[in-house]
Each structure stands twice: as C-alpha cells, then as structure tokens.
Amino acid sequence: MTWNLEMxxxxxxxQNPLSFVLRQSLTLRRIANxxxxxxxxxxxxxxxxxxxxxxxxxxxxxxxxxQIATDPALELTLVAPLVLIPPxxxxxxxxxxxxxxxxxPLQRLESQAAALAWGNFDAIQNPVGGIPEIQHLQLELVEMxxxxxxxxxxxxxxxxxxxxxxxxxxxxxxxxxxxxxxQAVIALKQRVALAQKSIHDxxxxxxxxxxxxxxxxxxxxxxxLTKGLRPIYLEDLGLVAALHTLTREIEHTxxxxxxxxxxxxxxxxxxxxxxxxxxxxxxxLNNTIKHANATHASLTISYSPSEIVLEIIDNGxxxxxxxxxxxxxxxxxxxxxxxxxxxxLIGAQLEIYxxxxxxxxxxxxxx
Length: 367
Prior knowledge:
By secondary structure, the protein is α+β, with helices and mostly antiparallel strands. It folds into three domains: 2-130, no CATH class; 156-230; 231-367, Heat Shock Protein 90, CATH 3.30.565.10. Helix content is 69%, strand content 10%. The chain has helices at 2-9, 17-60, 63-69, 72-79, 85-117, 132-197, 202-229, 232-237, 239-254, 271-292, 327-330, 334-345; strands at 257-263, 296-303, 308-314, 349-354, 360-366. Helix 2 packs antiparallel against helix 5.
C-alpha cells in the first residue's frame, strides 16, 4: 500500500511545503477547468439565441416590424434570463464537486475512523479519495493508527499479564477456600450434629439445628464462590460443559430462566482461550442479572470450521451502546470494558446490540 510507504517517508510533521502548495493549486485548477468551460458554453448559448432570434424575425417580419423586434431594449429582456445560466451551472458544478470530493470522502473517512475506534486498524488505510486536504487528513490518521496500534500492543501485553495474574490469584483463593475454609465449616457442622445427640432439651436442640442449617448454607455459598473463582468443569470437561453448568447455577441461584444451546461440533481450544470465553459469558450474564432486570436470557455457542461464536441475549432494559470502547469506563460500563479487553487478548471481535427497553445482544466472534 502506498499509504504506509508515503507516511513513513514523509511524515506529517515534516511535510514538504512545496508539495502542499502544489496540491492546493491542483485543486484550484480542477475548479477552473470545470467552471470556465461551463461559463463559455452559457455565453455561446446566449449569443446564439440572440442571433437565432434576429434571423427568425428577419424571415417572418417586415422591415418596420423587424426594427421594432430587434430594438436593443427588447432584446435585452430576451437575453436577461440567459444570464442566470452561469450561476445555475456554477451551483450544479459546486454541488457535484462538494458531494463527490468532500462530503462522500468525509463520510467514508468517518466510517473508517469509527472502525478504528473499535480496534480495526486496517480499515483506515483504504483510500477514500476526495480533495488533497482530505487525503492528507487520512494520511495523518493512518500514522496515528500506526502509533496507536503499537501503543495498544504494549498495553494489551500489560493487561494480559494482569489478567493472568488475576486468574492465578483466583485459583489460589479457590484452593484455600476449598482446602481450609470449607473443610473447617464442614467440621463445625459435624460437631454441631454430634452435639445435638447429647442434648435432650428441645429448645437447645432447635438452636443447634438452626446453627447446623446456617453452616450448611455457608458451605453451599463457599462452594458456589469457589466455582466462580475457579471453573473446575472447564479444566476437566471443556468449555461447553462449563457454560452449561454456569447457566444451571445462575438459574438455581437467581431464579432467572437461562437457556443454553450448542450448535455444531465442539472442539477443544487452548485453555487460555476457553477461560476467556467462559469469563466473557460469566460477566455478560452477571450484567444481565445486576443491571438488565431481565426475566429470560440465552447463551449460545456455535462451532463452525471458520469461526466460533459466543452469543448472549436477554430481554432486559437495555442501554445505549457507547460509540467507542474508550467510552466504556467514562459511562460506568466496566463489565463491558473487561469483556472488550478479554476479546482483544484472544483476537476475537466483539459486537454489542442494545437499545433502551429492547434487551441486549452480545456477540464474540473468534476466527
């Protein structure tokens, strides 16, 4: 692509002033080459109309009537409307030039800039055409995209390291909760059960029974917390089984209908990718529970030879999707920001469709 080469050999901050002047003069020459012929044509039409009028008058009128008909004042009224032709032609030419050389290229550039905001660094390099000033603006955006991509690569490496450390810490906490805390509460529950057998007072037995029930509920909560910190089904049985288990646990805990579906034939992926897809689904469903006020949600994972698609849909309140991922944090969408970062880390494409009172649809495409 000549765009990258030109940007590297002639960066915007060191642009040759002569080349900029030449581009300016080129634009002026284009306008002149367009308007001057149109003006000349309109003048020729005006002169031809006057001559044709005089010729027709000479053929059909007497000499006296001909003198009256060709009076300069009368012919001026004939020619006067033709004076409007050059402004009209100029307006049409200006409208065409503005639309084709300014408005449409700017619209294409705006679309490419929006794609750039979502991480598509290649879209901005497609030429948009237009006047040299718009092309120069695109060159600057290409250079900015190159620098932004380099900076984001370093940032994503840093975020990846943080995410890996976070998962390691979650696994450590899950092990400690399972090996120490849960076992201690189980031992406490067993001692309470033994104490019940040695007490004959019904009121004291009832108190110990309540304590045993509380210990059992604590064990269940700790086990659910442990599964959230470390999805053991993901390690042992794979992504599909882990997602199915996740939906059943959410249905049981939060009393919301969550449908799960797998399309295609499952294939195992590297553990880091499966873990990221699991965390994305987990965060999306948590957002549905906490913010959407939904009564139904669905989680679908589709396998095809070319891609894997993770889809989460709910019938909740919905929200206004930010125009750019940079607005996630500013608008308080930290869960979406985490989903976006995890998608970037595994090379997936994130799509979010939502509107107020119409629910939300989230897609993650991994090719």
